Amino acid sequence: MGALDYLSNFCTLTSTRSRRKPMQTVEIKVKMDCDGCERRVKNAVTSLKGVKTVEVNRKQSRVVVSGYVDGNKVLKRVKSTGKRAEFWPYIPQHLVHYPYVSGVYDKKAPAGYVRNVVQAFPPANAPQDNIISLFSDDNVNACSIM
């Protein structure tokens, strides 16, 4: 039976059909000054294959695209309109533990948003944190020698 299985691998037809892209939401920051800019960006993105919804917020300079699309293709299409665009770099302020650390707070951010920094502080279980907490006044079992 092993020989038949081995030979059957050569006889099977492999399909070159591409898999469907997963449903995702892409957020892009685009500077839009007027209704014409807004309309141009919206029409460019709407014509992409797989796009389900497009939301344009000129006040926040934000475009949200949902559908079976690739984020890089959406960004490239927005840039083809002549606008300067980048992926949305901001997250809501209440999701960040320390929103006023240098590098997180941005004056250009919309109200209630801060820059998305991966991690401003080392994790709590880092070795340096454990050593520092040994000699802390808050830790009652810190040093029994004294």
From TrEMBL:
Statement: the UniProt record of this protein carries the keyword Membrane? yes
UniProt superkingdom: Eukaryota
Q: Which GO terms describe its biological process?
A: response to stress
**Keyword Membrane recorded:** yes
Q: Could you tell me where this protein is found in the cell? A: Membrane
Write the record's keywords in alphabetical order, separated by commas.
Cadmium, Lipoprotein, Membrane, Metal-binding, Methylation, Prenylation
Q: Which GO terms describe its cellular component?
A: membrane
Occurrences of domain HMA (ranges) = 23-86
Where would you say this protein principally sits, based on its record?
Answer: membrane
Which is one GO molecular function term here?
metal ion binding
- Protein family per UniProt: Belongs to the HIPP family.
This chain's protein is named HMA domain-containing protein
Q: Which organism is it from?
A: Erythroxylum novogranatense
